[in-house]
């Protein structure tokens, strides 16, 4: 089970709809929830956004594409979790970039 999207939630909760992404959520709802999600900088363990990428996005699409300006390092496509985790832990990958890319990945279809 994936962790809830809010800080300190060990797992998603049906009683708190903002702590989970549901299959029937519209793109705007997914975007709102991810924007508010707990995503501490340089912390992979217990980070719900990173776990969504690890357990949903990468297995589903075999890549995670982050779009950034050239000033911020340019676009990057992650093909494996280890590289993404390393960039996130070093601060090369910013939480805002993760959230934007996660929203696009989850609402692509």
From TrEMBL:
Name the Enzyme Commission number(s) assigned to this protein.
6.1.1.1
Statement: the UniProt record of this protein carries the keyword Ligase: yes
Q: Name one GO biological process term.
A: tyrosyl-tRNA aminoacylation
Q: What Pfam families does this protein map onto?
A: tRNA-synt_1b
For this protein, the record's InterPro entries field holds: aa-tRNA-synth_Ic (IPR002305), Tyr-tRNA_synthase (IPR050489)
UniProt KW keywords: Aminoacyl-tRNA synthetase, ATP-binding, Ligase, Nucleotide-binding, Protein biosynthesis
Q: What class of enzyme is it?
A: ligase
Q: What SUPFAM superfamilies does this protein's entry cite?
A: Nucleotidylyl transferase
The reaction(s) annotated as catalysed by this protein in its Swiss-Prot or TrEMBL entry are: tRNA(Tyr) + L-tyrosine + ATP = L-tyrosyl-tRNA(Tyr) + AMP + diphosphate + H(+)
Gene Ontology molecular function: any one: tyrosine-tRNA ligase activity
Instruction: State any GO CC term.
Output: cytoplasm
What the record says about family reads: Belongs to the class-I aminoacyl-tRNA synthetase family.
- Protein's UniProt name: tyrosine--tRNA ligase
């Amino acid at each position: 089970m994936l962790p809830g999207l809010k800080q300190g939630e060990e797992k998603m909760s049906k009683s708190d709809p903002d702590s989970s992404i549901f299959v029937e959520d519209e793109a705007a709802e997914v975007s709102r929830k991810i924007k508010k999600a707990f995503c501490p900088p340089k912390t992979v363990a217990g980070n719900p956004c990173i776990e969504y990428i690890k357990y949903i996005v990468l297995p589903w699409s075999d890549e995670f594409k982050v779009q950034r300006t050239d000033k911020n390092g340019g676009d990057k496509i992650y093909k494996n979790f280890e590289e993404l985790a390393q960039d996130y832990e070093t601060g090369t990958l910013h939480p805002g970039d993760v959230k934007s890319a996660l929203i696009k990945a989850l609402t692509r279809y």
